[in-house]
């Protein structure tokens, strides 16, 4: 089940007039990871002030009761629903030009694990059931498309490793065989951000060795080492890392202050203390001395060794990485992985009318477009929308 606090997100609101005027008409697009669709919320600047984020809270009240045909809702100044619209012109969902592929798997949804990740089931070529985590890419933003392409290519290129969640298959839809995501082996038990999960000293050793392998052998910087991206395999009792969508290859995609050594330091601190304060600090404002300089790490998790043993190991490992020309070794990794750049999907080359000029002439362009624009051009659009999980659970119960 997707956590309530992770279900919705929005990138702000648009004001049709002075935002200081409480009566100014205001529109907000909110993405729902549960139903994989966007809903526009209309209101006033009084309901949606610039310095507050109320839109996701408002939509959360009634999202599960809306028909999938509803494109926009209007809320009064008290946040109560006052009107609905099914007009397709209200739909600002971005068109995603998925790349074509040749084969596909038939997947059955079992659960919705998190934003863009489902637990799914399929039968392989031997008709054996395979339970997998399906990572979806329903958002058409250029940066997210690049990240999805990079992660898919990186995972299928990685050598098999006991501490990386195994890649499974590329997933395509069944009309035009467009790539819509990929699957990885499903690891039961949840991630290490659950403070009730005990932690072994051997696992921090495995994590540091894995980071050394990725950084210094393959020239890969994960850039998102965090408890939410770490699992313990209940069959092998080994630590597993996943979620490579922020990964960098050499200088390509490399971000300042997001190196994996720093990531391990903050992750171990949060794991032992369960203190999440530093996760709220932007990574470019953090440095590992913030936690390494803390004299005592108060332990709030079950460990198989004393905290001092973890800290001493961490201190020695960080010192080794710093003294060995960390960045130079990373940039000169002997077995660097490579993959092609994201190709331009043929759909991008279909011109569409963006607007009218002052002379009334149509202004044409190619490139990113709204889904409603692509549909008007009779381009094929994969439709992600689905009923809320709560509705499906009620159907199962009945």
Automatic annotation (TrEMBL):
Enzyme class: transferase
Organism: Lineolata rhizophorae
Record text on subunit structure and interactions: Component of the EKC/KEOPS complex composed of at least BUD32, CGI121, GON7, KAE1 and PCC1; the whole complex dimerizes.
Signal peptide: none
Catalytic reaction equation(s): L-seryl-[protein] + ATP = O-phospho-L-seryl-[protein] + ADP + H(+); L-threonyl-[protein] + ATP = O-phospho-L-threonyl-[protein] + ADP + H(+)
Magnesium found in the keyword field: no
Keyword annotations from UniProtKB, A to Z: Kinase, Transferase
The UniProt record lists the keyword Phosphoprotein: no
Domain spans labelled Protein kinase: 107-398
Region Disordered: start-end pairs: 1-21
GO molecular function: ATP binding; protein serine/threonine kinase activity
Domain of life according to the entry: Eukaryota
Protein task: Component of the EKC/KEOPS complex that is required for the formation of a threonylcarbamoyl group on adenosine at position 37 (t(6)A37) in tRNAs that read codons beginning with adenine. The complex is probably involved in the transfer of the threonylcarbamoyl moiety of threonylcarbamoyl-AMP (TC-AMP) to the N6 group of A37. BUD32 has ATPase activity in the context of the EKC/KEOPS complex and likely plays a supporting role to the catalytic subunit KAE1. The EKC/KEOPS complex also promotes both telomere uncapping and telomere elongation.
EC number: 2.7.11.1
Name of the protein described by the UniProt record: EKC/KEOPS complex subunit BUD32
SUPFAM superfamilies per record: Protein kinase-like (PK-like)
